[in-house]
What does this fold into?
Amino acid sequence: GDVAVLVPAAGAGVRLGPGAPKALRPLAGEPLLVHAVRRIAAAPSVHTIVVAAPAADVGAVRQLLAPVAPVAVVAGGAERQASVAAALAAVPAGPEIVLVHDAARALTPPELVESVAEAVRAGHDAVVPVLPVVDTIKEVGAGEVVLGTVDRSALRAVQTPQGFRRSVLAAAHEAAGDPLTDDAGLVEKLGVPVVCVPGSEYALKVTRPFDLALAEHLLAIGA
Ligand code: C5P
It folds into this structure.
């Protein structure tokens, strides 16, 4: 394998309701993070996995993942971007392709990990998996008054894993200013082209209680 996968898993999961940090919430009896790491480890290109866990849970997460796959676990930060930077700093010499994958996208198929890695290997410095946007999107202002309608055909919903040539991701994090919600956004600021590949419905981000119910159902029918 020539790929390292960074797994930011240090978020609180406020939108999911009260409880444990999101990556540790159970989905069909196992934490989201366990589902996510199992699928990442099943991708043949993957050489190294580094998880960024909540600082208070680093030891527990190490124990949790030991039977799942060989992983390094580091303490995450207050923002997702800081968690990714901490994980990136822990990648050993070797892998020249780095993927960043949210623990919350617990049912992401190994095939998506492979297709993102392959697009980087083929020469793209930065790759994001995307789906078309199905809803009409409106921009709203004060008082929830609609300002305008965005041309949906030019929009994509972006998932993870996002893939990068290692040197490009490192440069993007070194240059980073205000925290962004994804790593490709940092790379865009460097002026490096970011290329889209087809995403997967199974890579949905478990964010709200509805998503957890949907993920349970997908697992029950064989995801
Ligand atoms: O909050 P959101 O759903 O955007 O989080 C995306 C991913 O980033 C989750 O897997 C979450 O655990 C992770 N995260 C993190 N450190 C933070 C905030 C979020 O690793 N401080």
User: Anything to note?
Assistant: The chain has one domain: 3-220. The chain has seven helices and twelve strands.
